[in-house]
Specification:
Layout (H helix, E strand, L loop, with lengths): L13 E4 L9 H4 L3 H10 L5 E3 L9 H8 L3 E8 L2 E12 L4 E2 L6 E2 L4 H14 L31 H6 L21 H6 L23 H15 L3 H13 L12 H6 L21 H4 L2 E2 L1 H16 L8 H7 L12 E3 L6 E8 L2 E8 L5 E6 L5 H15 L7 E3 L6 H7 L1 E5 L4 E7 L2 E5 L5 E8 L2 E3 L5 E6 L5 E6 L2 E5 L2
Parallel strand pairs: 2-12
Antiparallel strand pairs: 1-4, 3-4, 3-11, 4-5, 6-7, 8-9, 9-10, 10-11, 13-14, 13-20, 14-15, 15-16, 16-17, 17-18, 18-19, 19-20
Helix pairs in contact: 2-13, 4-7, 4-8, 11-12
Length: about 500
């Protein structure tokens, strides 16, 4: 992705949390320490997705912040079952010039989902909820409208957690700070002031993978209905407190010192999000404010649960079920990759002005969390995660190599157009010189590299393909799990 028009400041502020009191070390000794590995990550960034035949010199985090126009990034790394280092780089708020530190709050965005899901699974363990019972049996304040898709196929908690419920609304844009904020019922019904469509079933539950933030909102309602507690209180008592996520909160909007100390979100241009950040009343889906260190504590809690430790957040059986891959590699509220020693659970997050990723290994007590305060942050997040993987020799964690194929200029022009997700945003595909570029609704750009049979990969991450009708005309575009129809 080309650099954004406005860049992060040239002065890089680094904040560091490490164990003090270490004796001076020779270079060879330092390389294997937490400090040495953190320094290696800091200067060893390479693209997570590379195009065969292109040369990629390593870069530092400071260089990438400037190149990608990302104000700040915060990192926490887990090794041997402990958070071994946490560092933050850059500027938390470009308007004020305030430096980011490891204690600066960032929006977890969709990384809220796996944390929220653990509370649902606790209630399953306690017999209050059942994974395969219709959620209509526990919903009291609202019901999923019945239709032809739900006839004989009721939505269950398992469907909600695995994104197979058939429920609509993949994600949420948030609300302007200081503006009107909808209730959960208004969000689910798409009623003003909600800015998203109604959450409804438009596919047979259990029949397909369809990422659904709307489904997570139904799960949130299930939890509050059966416990009689508001969601922030419920999560503080069941997860945040026991796990040690003491800096984290589901308060939306933030108030007091937390509001002042939180990172501001930034657009791809470098401009701050209006009001510093959006408000997300869609709490379970996107509303957690946290730090990478706090999210790393949740990863550790999951790892202890998977080991069957006494007093862990979940039982070993429940945790193992949570990281058992189903359709599309999804477990219960978390995505799963690898197997054996390389079995890992992961989730990304993207709110207005924030991008992040968490990774935890099921067997080895390793992992990391990386969060940025920019819409342009995804590429940096992935590069840092790959650098951590190299520094700690993570199994099964390798860069993606795109092998391009030659296509004619006529084929490239045929791909160009505007594509729309049903009831949602539009993206633009355009030819620039001899390259094909995708522009996402928030301005982020991704190069599309043809790989044959109308397929493509992107150095900025992701893959997909174009679809043709019987006459050979391009009619649709698949981006990840989302299919968009060509509108012109």
């Amino acid at each position: 992705m080309p650099p954004s028009g406005r860049k992060a400041g040239s002065v890089l502020v680094v904040a560091l949390i490490l164990v003090a009191g270490c004796a001076p070390m020779r270079q060879g000794e330092l390389a294997g320490t937490a400090t040495g590995r953190a320094d290696r990550v800091e200067r060893d960034l390479l693209p997570a997705v590379r195009v065969a035949g292109r040369h990629y010199p390593p870069a530092t985090i400071a260089e990438r912040l400037h190149e990608y126009g990302v104000p700040a990034v915060s990192i926490a790394v887990i090794d041997g079952g402990a958070v071994v280092w946490a560092r933050a780089y850059g500027t938390a708020d470009m308007a004020s010039g305030r430096a980011a530190t490891p204690t600066t709050l960032f929006q977890a965005a969709s990384m809220s989902k796996p944390v929220a899901s653990t509370a649902a699974l606790q209630l399953v363990q306690e017999g209050i909820l059942a994974l395969d019972a219709p959620v209509s049996e526990t919903l009291r304040s609202w019901q999923i409208p019945k239709n032809a898709f739900t006839a004989g196929h009721p939505v269950t908690l398992r469907h909600l957690l695995t994104h197979t419920s058939g429920l609509t609304v993949s994600g949420f844009p948030g609300y302007r700070a200081g503006g009107s904020i909808p209730t959960l019922a208004q969000i689910l019904d798409g009623a003003p002031p909600a800015n998203t469509p109604p959450v409804r079933v438009d596919a047979i539950p259990g029949s397909q993978l369809k990422y659904s933030g709307g489904g997570m909102m139904v799960m949130q309602l299930v939890l509050t209905d059966v416990t009689g507690k508001d969601f922030p209180t419920l999560m503080r008592e069941r997860v945040l407190g026991p796990v040690g996520m003491h800096s984290s909160t589901w308060e939306q909007p933030l108030s007091g010192n937390r509001a002042r100390d939180a990172a501001a979100g930034h657009q791809t241009t470098g401009a701050p999000v209006e009001g510093r950040y959006h408000v997300y009343p869609e709490l379970a889906a996107a509303g957690l404010w946290t730090t990478p260190t706090d999210l790393a504590h949740w990863v550790q809690a999951m790892q202890r649960s998977l080991e069957g430790e006494a007093g862990a957040l979940l039982s070993r059986e429940t945790a193992r079920t949570m990281v058992t891959a189903g359709l599309g590699g999804w477990g219960l509220g978390i995505q799963v990759m690898g197997r054996g020693d390389s079995l890992a659970f992961t989730h990304s997050g993207g709110n207005a002005g924030f991008r992040g990723l968490l990774v935890g290994f099921a067997e080895s007590g390793r992992g990391a969390v990386v969060i940025t305060n920019s819409d342009a942050g995804s590429r940096l997040v992935n590069e840092i995660m790959q650098a951590v993987a190299r520094a700690y020799d993570w199994p099964g964690f390798r860069p993606t190599i795109i092998v391009p194929v030659d296509v004619t200029s006529e084929t490239l022009r045929a791909y160009a157009g505007i594509y729309e997700l049903a009831g949602g945003p539009r993206v633009r595909v355009a030819v620039e010189g001899s390259a094909l570029w995708l522009t996402l609704p928030w301005g982020e750009r991704r190069e599309l590299i043809p790989t044959g049979d109308d397929g493509f990969g992107s150095p900025e991450g992701g893959s997909g393909r174009f679809f043709r009708d019987r006459l050979g005309q391009i009619t649709a575009l698949l981006l990840g799990d989302d299919q968009l129809q060509r509108v012109r």
